[in-house]
User: Fold this.
Amino acid sequence: MKKFKSHTLSEYLDVLSRRTPIPGGGSAAALVAATGAALVSMVADYSRNRTRSKGVEKKIRSVRRRSERIRKRLLDLVDLDAQGYLKVVKARGASTAVKKKAMREAAKAPREVCQLCYQAIQLVPYLVKNGNPYLISDIKVAAEMLFAGFNAAHINVEINS
Assistant:
């Protein structure tokens, strides 16, 4: 099966809209969060090399590296969430213990999405203050997407815990 992260946006949305168990809300939450992290990276990239102090430049480069690491992991979680939920689907009709184990496993990916969103949102205030002022709307959109990704993933953590 082709990884969801390798689909075009159109393909992913087509698959998401079908009556299939995966991808679902957890996978979509990871994608929204990855999009928010990508915007953080974009703003950091546009904010580099703008007649600033070396300290500010160093911090902006650090923000960019961190947001890219987070973005890449969130994109992996688009698929990992789907794989985790498939275990829940396969556990239907099994013993209560097997079902509970599958649900605990399925909560791992959305829990990590929440953690990564939290880490990424901590990068936003620095860019609001020190980033390219022409991109303030982009960094605010990034924050909203990270909040949305966090909240959506948290729903899956609650359901599966």
